[in-house]
Design goal:
- The strands form 3 sheets. The chain has a 4-stranded mixed beta sheet, covered by helices on one side. Strands 1-2-3 form a 3-stranded antiparallel beta sheet, with helices on one face.
- It starts with a strand and ends with a helix.
- β1 and β2 form a beta hairpin.
- The radius of gyration is 21 Å and the shape is elongated.
- By secondary structure, the chain is an alpha+beta fold.
- The chain folds into 2 domains: 38 residues, no CATH class; 140 residues, Rossmann fold, CATH 3.40.50.
Length: 186
């Protein structure tokens, strides 16, 4: 969204407000009001917990300790669920997620390669799973939907988009979660 207010142009993209000043002009009070007003817009809220993460089927990542792997996994899942929630849920709805099991695709090979580092090898096809409990709460506090969901799929490099390293380790689950969010919001 683009708002022109006096001598200030404000652009709104997702949760970021970017301000562009025209050269040699002062910011007027109305533009600052828009900035404050739109930067505080609340989106759907996500609460994510890993339940007994150290008991998950397969969550360890290459080159990371178990606890660091869980922290990374929780951070990336939180980012993924937050992004999808902002795309599919209504304002002020709250999504509570409890991840009960993760099985990442591939297998960790310990002391593998010339430097004897731990590597996750993902061969095609390979299964991956994620089980979680969810509760979708409306703005008034009433529970809209709740339940358990299980993602079980195979990574097949012939049928999937090639991995983009910038997406982290949870990108495998994105397609299935998009489908789940669509079903959740019907």
């Amino acid at each position: 969204m683009l708002v022109v207010c006096g001598e200030v142009i404000l652009t709104f993209k997702e949760d970021k407000v970017m301000k562009f000043l025209k050269p040699n002009k002062q910011v007027n009070l109305l533009a600052i009001s828009f900035l404050v007003l739109f930067s505080g817009v609340s989106k759907a809220d996500v609460s994510l917990k890993l339940i007994e993460g150290k008991k998950f089927t397969d969550y360890k990542m290459s080159g990371q300790t178990s606890s660091k792997s869980l922290k990374t996994l929780e951070k990336e899942l939180n980012e993924l669920f937050s992004k999808l929630s902002s795309d599919y849920l209504l304002e002020k709805q709250k999504l509570e997620i409890e991840i009960t099991n993760i099985d990442l695709p591939g297998i960790i090979h310990y002391a593998y390669g010339p430097n004897h580092q731990d590597l996750r090898i993902v061969e095609s096809p390979t299964p991956y799973r994620m089980y979680f409990n969810f509760k979708l709460v409306n703005a008034d506090g009433s529970v809209n939907k709740s339940g358990e969901h299980k993602i079980k799929d195979f990574y097949d490099s012939a049928n999937k988009i090639k991995r983009n390293r910038s997406k982290g380790v949870v990108w495998y689950y994105q397609e299935a979660l998009i489908k789940w969010f669509k079903e959740l919001t019907e």
